[in-house]
Amino acid sequence: MPSPVSLMTLDSLQKCVFSYNSNCQETPSDYIAAILELSSLVVRRQHRLLLHWDFLYHLTADGRRFRRTCDTVHRFTADVVQRRHQALDRLGREAWLKSKQGKTVDFIDILLLAKDEDGQDLSEEDIAAEADTFMFEGHDTTAIGLSWVLYNLACHPEYQKRYGCSNCSMPFSTMCIKESLRLHPPVMAVSRRCTEDIKLPDGHVLPKDTRNICLISIYGTHHNPAVWPEPQVYNPHRFDPENSKNQPPLAFMNCIGQNFAMAEMKVVLALTLLRFAVHLDESRPVRRKPELILRSENGLWLHLDPLGPSCESRPPHRAPRAIHSPLLREI
């Protein structure tokens, strides 16, 4: 069962990528079900060593389900790309661009206008692959990031009170989000292939070998006390421009879609915290659960306390009212 936050981010991404109103928060669809099922299948496969070989995996029930759900996702994307391509071919590039003036240009539009290194248009397969990647990777990580930042602000009402005020500066909003992403990075590690020799600080060398994969721990870097003093403490002021100007460039790692994700998180958090004070549900302890992304074992449960018309009415230390919401219950 998807969480309300995951459905919200997926709905938003569908609108921005495809200009498509999925209404998945109210009405289920085959495409949404396929996206969610793929996420579950990928995690399950990671925990079964023998299924890392494709020929074995595709003989299993999970492998057959994986292929069926991939086909559903690919058909949806291919259909959108093909219809948009047909409109571009019918009107011509100049007329098509003119028709877009004053209107929202979505991700598919940008890909249709893109050129490769040889100045050629991207193929429909290339465009579909980019759109699939953006859709599959871009909704659940943002949902988890939103969940953890609301959890951290619930743990620290002094920051929440300032964040929720209408006169809160945008830099402080960014600081709160980045510190939460440091403390609870949705993606805990990335893998890379060595295309050149890499010398480590201790003198050891990782040799160039594209057959070998190096795992880079984002979680470990973000919790390294040599880089981040008191790494387990939630302190947004770490990301004050004055405090962070001397930080190593890779002390804090984010994703390629960070600009889109950051904009979405700022809007959602502002709309939430201007209306509600968020409090922890003390009866449900939080325990981290590392999977494909960093979840909580039993979800993140919060109480929402409606606020008055001004931010001064926020009760930062008041006991929560009886409003109990599974707002952050994760998949």
UniProtKB/TrEMBL annotation:
Name the protein family.
Answer: Belongs to the cytochrome P450 family.
Please name the Pfam families in this protein's record: p450 (PF00067)
Q: What is this protein called?
A: Uncharacterized protein
Give the InterPro entries listed for this entry.
Cyt_P450, Cyt_P450_sf, Cytochrome_P450_Monoox
One GO molecular function term of this record is: monooxygenase activity
Query: Organism's domain of life?
Result: Eukaryota
Underlying gene: LOC115642031
Please report the organism this UniProt entry assigns to the protein: Gopherus evgoodei
